Amino acid sequence: MNNTAQIKDLFYLVMQDDEAAYKTLFIKLHKPLCQFAYGILKSQQDAQDVVSDVFITIWEKRNQLTDVSSPLAYCYTAVKNRSLNILKQQKRQKELDNSEWLVPQNSVYFNPENLMMTEEIIQQIRLTIQNLPSRCRLIFKLTKDDGLKYREVADLLNISVKTVEAQMAIAMRRLVKCMPFNLTTQTTKSVKK
């Protein structure tokens, strides 16, 4: 079961008053949502407060969330909206372009065991991802690390799906360039699919 399907199942169980599922959902989403909130707020404490508030609201309104089709996108959108409200309340709101949001890159999309990569190649991939333009890096993280669909990322960042596709194409081209010759052929084929 992939991560998105598991989150959807847990969310459904939460709507059925399952406290164990709620705790599991919280543990599974806390870190990526805190990183996302931190990218907007630039404050670790505020980010943790926002994520905690979102989860409290999910539990309190669990019976009203039956129409949520994508729980992961719902959580990210709730964190984004609450974070932006915090900025307004603190009167720190300035013209904030989402390409400036700092979102740390924790993992590499590729599985080193499956691709039999050396640590050197993994470091090269991390460096390549870190050197992506900020908006491109954010979109890459949301789609590849967090499992959001292109439409969900577009809605979250108030951009078009075509922009998401274009940014992902840039990211994938740069990742392909950093691969050694024997992996470049395999990766190029998988990117075209």
TrEMBL record:
Entries under Gene3D superfamilies matching the protein: 1.10.1740.10, Winged helix-like DNA-binding domain superfamily/Winged helix DNA-binding domain
InterPro entries the UniProt entry points to: RNA_pol_sigma-70-like, RNA_pol_sigma-70_dom, RNA_pol_sigma70_bacteroid, RNA_pol_sigma70_r2, RNA_pol_sigma70_r4_t2, RNA_pol_sigma_r2, RNA_pol_sigma_r3/r4-like, WH-like_DNA-bd_sf
Keywords: Sigma factor, Transcription, Transcription regulation
SUPFAM superfamilies per UniProt: Sigma2 domain of RNA polymerase sigma factors (SSF88946), Sigma3 and sigma4 domains of RNA polymerase sigma factors (SSF88659)
Keyword hit for Transcription: yes
Domain RNA polymerase sigma factor 70 region 4 type: residue ranges: 123-175
Segments forming domain RNA polymerase sigma-70 region: 27-92
Protein family according to the UniProt entry: Belongs to the sigma-70 factor family. ECF subfamily.
PANTHER family: RNA POLYMERASE ECF-TYPE SIGMA FACTO (PTHR43133), RNA POLYMERASE SIGMA-70 FACTOR ECF SUBFAMILY (PTHR43133:SF46)
Protein name: RNA polymerase sigma-70 factor
